[in-house]
Amino acid sequence: MRPTHDALAPMLAAPLLAAALSLGACAEDPPPAPPPDTPRDIRLRVEGGTASALVPTASGIVVGTTPATGLGRGAILRVAEDRRVEQLQETLGPVRALDVDTSGATVSFAWSEEAGGLYAADAGAAPPVALRPVSVNVLSFARTGGAFSYATPTGVGRTDTDADQELGPGDRALASDGTTTFVLTMKVGAPTAPTRAWELSALVPGAAPRSLAAGEGAPGSGAMARALTTDATNVYAAVAGVGLVSVPKAGGTAVTLAPQTSASLPVVEGRYVYFADNGGIDAVVLRVPTAGGAVEPVVRARGALVTALAVDGGFVYWASVDGGVYRTPKP
Fold this sequence. Notes:
Elements: E1 3-4, E2 11-12, E3 39-46, E4 49-57, E5 60-67, E6 74-79, E7 85-91, E8 98-101, E9 108-112, E10 118-122, E11 129-132, E12 140-144, E13 147-151, E14 155-158, E15 165-166, E16 170-176, E17 181-187, E18 197-203, E19 210-216, E20 228-230, E21 234-239, E22 243-248, E23 255-258, E24 263-269, E25 272-277, E26 284-289, E27 296-300, E28 306-312, E29 315-320, E30 324-329
Antiparallel strand pairs: 1-3, 2-3, 3-30, 4-5, 5-6, 6-7, 8-9, 9-10, 10-11, 12-13, 13-14, 14-15, 16-17, 17-18, 18-19, 20-21, 21-22, 22-23, 24-25, 25-26, 26-27, 28-29, 29-30
């Protein structure tokens, strides 16, 4: 896929009436409208696909791309502040998740392959290295210590061991704090079941999975299971049919921070959790305090789906199904 990166004029979101959404609002309430005249500017437009992963770095934002069909090759790009685009790697499959290690002079990254597998490479001409072949799709992965943990439809594996942990069938996502891998699973149930069970677990090497919280989500698709993040004390998960929930790392009651049942892509930064709500005609990016409080609008995404979200410094970055990668100043 060939990116275009002409300097495009910043676009202004249509004025909408701002509205705060308290924790007491019911799940059926519409998401709060973004503030009037929310500025946004385009960083990149992907031709023939979308950006599926975003990682801000000191040298620019690193972008993973996926073809519009969901099949075929992807790419990993770096977009500088002046919108110059550098292709770091062409990937063997769509970029489902992306990790960037900025501890050294070069940017290294890993991605999952559509047909199964996990790869790593440094920026440059060197070919990627296969970390682990997998017979099914890699749904999500996270760096845990010196290895990567990866989720599949049947369990969780690590690149430094051959012993995968079977967790049963389901759609799942991962996040890591460097030592513990946190797993959100939307469990497979009967098609006619009124709800769909979910569970948040913690994994450490050499120990059995430890359940932190569980509950009932929505029937049907478990796509929203591919969304969780963590800070020093809590795990924040976007659960289909429930909303954005917070669970202590030690386990306990899941507290619903935001009742948007289509919440996805949570990113914790400072004292806020930013997330996308793809449930309306236009997707919106919102934020809520990690300690609980009113859900605040950030920006209307002007698209039916936000495909990636990142927060860094003074900006919020997001990607949309129109192929664009945008940013807007943090509120």
